[in-house]
Amino acid sequence: MRTVDEHLNDILGSLTVLPPLDLALLEARGTVLAEPVSAPVPLPPFDNSAMDGYAVVASDVAGATEADPVALPVVGDVVAGDPAVSALRPGLTARIMTGAPMPAGADAVIPVEWTDGGTAHVRIVRSAPPGHYIRRAGEDVREGQVVVPAGTRLRAPQLGMIAAVGRARVTVRPKPRVVVVSTGDELREPGTTLGHGHIWESNSFMLTAAVAEAGGVGYRHSTVDDEPGSVRDMLQDQLVRADAVITSGGVSMGSRDVVKEALTGTVKFHKVGMRPGKPQGFGLMEGTPVFTLPGNPVSAYVSFQVFVRPALRAMQGLPPEPLPTVKAVLSGDIKSPAGLRHFLRARLTYDGGYTVDPADVQGSHQLASLASADALITVPEDVETLPAGSTVDVMRLPA
Question: What pTM was estimated for this model as a whole?
Answer without folding.
Answer: 0.89
